[in-house]
Fold:
Amino acid sequence: MSELKYSVELSAFWPPADRCVPGGYRKPMEIEQMLDALAGIDGLDGTEIYWPGDFDDPVAMKSMLDERGLGVASVGVDIFADAQWQKGALTSADTALRGEAIQRHKDAMDAAVVLGVDTLTMWPGQDGFDYPFQSDYRALWQRLTDGVREVGEHNPNIRVAVEYKVKEPRSHLLVSNVGKALTLVHDVGLANVGVCLDVGHALIAFENPGESMALLDAYDRLFHVHMNDNYREWDYDMLPGSVHLWETLEAFYWMDRLGYEGWINFDICPFREDPVRASQETISMARQLMRAARELDHDRLETLQKTGDSVAICTLLRESVLKG
Structure:
């Protein structure tokens, strides 16, 4: 039976902003305050941090994490939150800018080694297009493939988990769904390049997260998991299971069935909620959902899956989960 490790991104404690309140909905916190808050959450194993936004000194960061007993799920790389990337980072037509984006990933990999972390999360959030006829799609894809390959070759011992998303901040992102993510991994052709499945991103791509997990696992490319929720039309980063309870439960079922032993990082954005309470509820919900997934009659469920008996499966879920 696989054991999962749970983390909450430091970004959950950032002052969330939107175009109505660009200054954010709460006051900024110092890094030590964020880590102290995380350390007090029951059931939390660590956090996910961004280079260079959250830290630029891996030795100092490791010391702060060790003092609080926090692990690191992954090192994310910021190539999306600055105006210089507005026309692409890994796909930029500007050779120098593209080189800077690639070097930033290499530096983050070096920092991960100091932290004792084996996974780098890559989200090419500005690599896409907005208008018809705006881009040479083949050139964009080639630059993306070459860039990801150069990053992966920098350190074969660090796994590069490419996170896909259908839209935002561009109207179309190049790596927009699980199929295109696997296509990119195939084209890159490196054993240490795989996929980060963000459940919220799968939802807005109209995927079933459990199916996407099973597909990635079939190719041995389910490297990392982000979890949150939304209404399928926008990436709200809501608390997991707050909207799509059954799909979230099924995601836990498949992680357990597949023997996934990595981290689940909760990529939540509590705009108007207290981030500590939101994080604690997220961990509590995740632990209960995993218990519920494991308590299902797996033999009966797998027998019913062979015939696709959806009514009987609904009965099984009602009796097991809703206790009725």
